[in-house]
User: Fold these one by one.
Assistant:
Number 1:
Amino acid sequence: MKKKGVAHVVAVFVLCFLWGLGFLPVTASASNGAPGVWNPGKEIISLTLDVRSGDITDTFQDALNMARKDKSHAYEITVPAGTYKVSEGLHIFSNTKLNMEGVTIRFTAKEGNILVTGTSIINSLKDTSYSKVTGYGGYENIYINKGTWVANPKNGSSVMRFFHGRNIVLDGMTVDNCGGRHQVEVCALDGFYVKGCTFKNYSRKKSGSSKFEALQLDIPCADSVYKGVHEDGTMMRNVYVEGCTFSKVPRGVGTHTQLVGSYHENVYIRNNTFTNVAEEAIVALNYYNCEISGNRIENCGAGVLVQTMKKNSSTVYAFTEDVKYKKAKNFYSDLKTRVVNNTITVKYTKESDEVQGVKIYGRKLSKAEKGAKGKKIPARDYYAGGVVVSGNIIQTAGHGMHLMDAKKCVITNNQITGKGFNKKDPRVKQKKYDGIFLEKASTSNSISNNNIKSAVRNGIFVYEKSSVKDLSNNVIASSGKYGIGIGNKSKSTGAFTKNTINKSKSSGIFISESSTVKSIKENTITSSGGHGIGLWKKCKVTGAIEKNIITKSGDKGISLSTGCNVASIVNNKITTAKKNGIFIYNKSKAKKIKGNSIKGTKKPAIKK
């Protein structure tokens, strides 16, 4: 009882103090909650700003400072509905909630952030400068509820910045316009929740290789990356971006800074809408245990990019500028990342690096390369492994999916349609877009049960020392070249089985350039412009070409050329091939040819 009485006296004193400063009446209550809600764990003092209109910078900051001074309470600050100006950056501290329903804040300053955690000044309150705050120990329990924050397009800074803290929540707010690199940028947070927010009307201001996410998850590793904060390399963890809208921005949500061996962990990007985003909607660079699901991506330059190494090593950090930084040594072979049940429509834009629905990108460094600040990035295979891409509906003016140095990934139950190809896109002119494209030693991947239509080049293309362990039950129609192609020393360790391929302009299945397939079984191939199944240039099928149904081939039903070898060609049904049913020539061999049904060919059914 004594402890309650003391707390009550303190609360009454604080209430009277606030009233005396011109704030409207306040109340106090206890609070306790779950992550993602305001959970200060201490008694709450509520107050409403006594404002009319005009510039409210001083009044607003005075209220924030009250929360800053009073370490015994949490503060819930309500701004009355209306439109107001803020002429200097506002500084917010721990255990503070802003209620901004019906409020529009117009930022008039030509530099600085409209809202930022902490302060860079050490003053009589003995605050720790935000350049000294480390880990997740800076600021906690901050909740921004609703409100429209309108940036000054002449201001070169990001609109909001939060860092080195815990349990930061942005709920239902809108950020409009931006003159800087990002609308909201954060780093070193454990528990960052963005729900029902809108990010809009931010045009890329600069050209070149710089990337401009509306919502950026960053790393405190260099002053040029995240200015003014302690650069200890603390990564983001427990991030939720849900039910948000990104419209007319350069990039949606993601990361473009990399610290070798360090990962953002437990990142969930779910049920958001991205419209008219110039580049990628989502960029997951070194994310571990990540879920990207239920998002609607519409008329964007690219969809989802999952990445474990950047294309240019000069932008990768091998260290931080804090001398106490302990270099991370985590290199996850399994990213535990899921890209599932998204609806994606992508189009050509001049800003996008590559038009694609989903891209999984790793890169092997055969020798050490210079990274940022001239420090070496160690030689190793920085491959992207263990990504599941499933249940997505993709309409693409480029690749449906593109894998580069991606290993042990699962691509299943996706619908991919090529549509809206732009003649200004050089890759369209060169016919270099596929439904699903694997290259750069993308190995041990599974591709099954996908439906692929109208790819510019191939429905599925496995290339450049890549491999699949399962390629089955895919339905592929109207490809510009092959239904399924495998080439340049690639291989399949499992069977090509039960795929349905219709109207490929060239061969239905084509194996080339010293590639190896275990077997080709039970596929249905109809109306190919070239061969039904073709092998060329020292390729092997170590098992059988067996029980395939091949109808209306524009060339041969099955063709082996230039030193190819097959264990057996048995029990296939070949109907109406324009030339031969089975054609083996130019030093190629099939050890056994037996039980094939061949009808309607204009040249000999079998020719060796």
Number 2:
Amino acid sequence: MRNAKLTRLLALLLAMMMAFALVACGADEEEQPAQDQEQTTDKTEEPKEEEKEEEKVVRDTFTMAISYMPDALSPIGNGSDDYTTMTRPLYDKLFMENNEGGIDYYLAKSLEISPDGMTYKVTLRDDITWSDGTPITTKDIEFGMQYSIAKYGYNRYARVNGVEGTYEIIDDQTFSVTIPEAYNYFIATLGGMTIFPAHEFESAEALAADQSYYTKKDVVTSGPYTIKEINADSVVFEARNDYYRGTPEIKNIVLKVVGSGSTKAIAFENGEIDYMRITTVDELDKYSAQSDKYNLYIMPEARLNYLQVNPYGPNPLTDEQREALFYAINGDEVIDFAYGSTDLAQNPNSMLVPTQALYNAETPDYVYDLEKAKQMAKDTGLEGKELVYIYNKDRANMEACAIVLQQQLQQIGVTLKIEGLDSTTFFQRFFGLSSYHNDQYTTWDLGTNGWDSMRGGTLYQAYSYFNQADDAWGMTPACGDLAVKVNTITDQAEMQKAADELMEVAMAQHRIYPLTYTNYVMVSQKYVGGLDTCDIVPEFADWLAISVNN
């Protein structure tokens, strides 16, 4: 009986276990479709995730910082680097000399210079138009010459050394200018001619009297961009679809007012602007170490920063006193203190820069000799003098240059009373005699300034200092005669020989001390490309080379 009960109990347990197994199997079968569905969903989402990771941002805007809002956007310019940078996207030149000694053509397609160096024949492209579709022709060229006469009293595009030449309009695409004597720098004058849309104005005289046209948004332009918006703190340019050199990749350029120094750096690092200039070794080191995020560009600025001794200052210095002053200047120390790296600036050996064809690397530099400077300062009465030193505080590194020079000259008993001035005030004082014709020129003894964009095969800006323009800079007549000779010789070898002689004579006068050859160093967002092809300062000459989808 007990065995029968035990048998029934085992059978019951076995039945319950089988039932439980069946229920479990049923549950698995019911849940399986859900598991399959989950696996299917995962497989269909994976490609979408990969696609999302590979998606590329397409940009069409380049944002750059400006230091102020311009009153107008005119091709005439106002002499500042900022303004030139702002207006370059809007207006093209005929042609520009490049760092290789050749010519980059824009509105012009060719330039022919006669064997005697006096006649320049220019042929315009036949596919150039203003932004309103009107062809650009020699009518616009002639209007520009007439504007010069109305504004300045002479045709600056046919005038050399105070004597005016002639011009001829040959046809709609061709004109020529004959100057009174060979003058090598004239190629830069002619290439940089300001060209206006003649059809927009009643006359050249009317434009000279009233330039309010260029304060408006809808001005007619010759470059790759037009003005799209003018806001309280920004200007927006829009790419032309009919630009003769092709449509720019960047559809919009935004010029945005941004503060200087750390404010600009913060804006750059936050992605609010696409590039900025670097002027300190700390910035250079910082962004060089982040090559995964930023691009770094280093190119010659084609600028000579120099120290000028004023011949008409409160304390006119003798030849021997100027010589003592120059012996006391340590050029390498100026670079180390004011720049901190030869990537930012180099110690120069000449008043010409390496980007000029006439530059000679063998030109003897001034010698630093502190003991000789001390003795000469004592013997000549320079010791104990206080000299007024002015500099442009809006220019990078100029304050640091002033401080190191102050320290160096203190070692020979000369005290520098340093005055940092904004650009407008500085230029009015520095060029008071030669340009602004006021008595501010007599209020300073030493000043630092720069000759910029020194490119091509001529003396460029240095010429006006060497040839005694307005008798402003104290150079001897012999120096002036040599400068004229350099700019009127057509044989290259003879021209180089005269330039070398000019450097020897000019350096011997101890009027101008070459302080630095500066580099233009930029950092950009990683997605920006093409800035290394724009080797001109101020930036940028060729907007078709720049990309924001690098």
Number 3:
Amino acid sequence: MKKNRLLQLKNKLSSASLKKTLSRLDPFGLHYGVFFLALLFSFGSSCQVKRNQKRSDLAELHLNIPYDPYTLDPRKGGDLTSSTMQFLLFEGLTRMTPYSTVSLGMAEKIDISEDKKTYTFYLRKAYWSNGVPVTAFDFAQTWKDMLNPNFSCPNAHLLYPIKNAEAAKRGLVLERQIGIRALDYQTLEVYLEEPTPFFLEMLSFCVYFPIYQNVATRIAKWAECTGQDFICNGPYRLVEWRRNNEIILEKNPYYWDKEHVELDRISISIMDNEATALQMFERDELDVLGLPFTGIPSDAVPSLRDKGLIKTTSLPASTICCFNMHAFPFTNVNIRKAFAYAINRQELVENITHMNEEIGPSFIPKSLNGYDLPPFFKDGDVETARIFLRKGLRELNLKEEDLDNAITLLHASSGVYPKIAEALQNQWQKALGIRVKLARHDYRVFIDKLTKRNYQMAECAWIAQYGDPMNFFERLKIKSHNKNYPAYENPQYVELLEKSSQYIDSQKRFTILQEAERLIADEMPLTTLYHWRTPYLQKPHVENLVFSNSGRFLLQQIHLQKMGAKEVRDE
């Protein structure tokens, strides 16, 4: 039906009425209208291709994600699934590659001042998915919008190295005082508060990706659209998004590096069940399985490993247990330490995750830090944990039975979260004699409770957004930080972080960060369970599946071997 309407419209466009019709299609003028109309016709025909084309004729990758992205707008995303999609659809000044997190992206050249506080970016000749050039003004306005006090942006803090960025977000200075200047269409100048050694790495994270201002200012919900109103600048463009069902991406013909994008299409089903996803993989309905897409069921890992099918990659992420420092009984540091010391992390990685991950209690994953600290305490130190428990109970004027069934551990209902939670519950009862209740919620509710501090104790995760230890440290800098789940705040800790930023020399900087890590271990707002080693599966016909230094799949370099004729799923 849609195709018939498009054909009727096409037939009506006589040369006499062409300009008038196009002006109605797009208020910005004839150039945009011609493009949008052509795009509409291409979508009409592409639907027919999708139904009838054989898989052997198309380089199409099939994936699954557990839930709909919260948003495809890179300014507003904060979860792993949203950012994964944003990396496919958008690109920043720098980008992640298998070799670096600071390879040139939209920037063709970068100049850095002698004092390391002024960055000048010269943009390459690149285009949005509608054929309009990407400009420095797009970057400048996107970033300034995020720093508007009235704009909801979970990751606005990542822009705070920019001069007056934090002050602008707090409403203390005007937008024009922010250290962001578009000097002309191709030149962007950024001024920093202090030298920031990891600034270029931050730029490769999706919060720094630009959006197309002409559409964003006209259409409030542009990021929920498909077709002509969803404009992006990355390797793929959005063709279809059926909520809780499927997302279809196609190669972006206007991407500046399209010659190195191998895939024609990525079909992403949406289903939150790891066991079912594994069955789909075994039925050749999925080509790759593993985070940041759908993970592999932990109880299936041993047998898959025995068959030689499991591959692994490190991801700069950690599973943690955090304590709400403003909720009973974790207002007391000794109670927090009792629960942290009692955890046997080695049992978790041997019996549940089966991936032999690097266990805590170190705060920073080795893939992020530039230093090596000995453990701050012994894993599963039950004897010391009981000493802290008795001390904490005396300070709170409580008995052990007062805590029995009075504490609830919050966790997500998907993935390995429930099994880890049950193991922790058993360990604490055995070590401390305290029965802990479990509260499992779907991911959206779980995250909402975490960020609002509506919990006592939680099993959760931190995933690095850029390749520097400061990405974890800065989350605990201020109580209001979106990922400061414990609501921790300490002036001494803040002073250490600010002092570390004054040093370009990495050794001096890391020495100060070590002091900050020792302070966290002493005050115990959270404790690390393990740092991630992620298993994944790939079909034999999937070649050149590579990862960035941050552990993310780089799908644009995938090559698919020709397979036997197989009909694409008819929708």
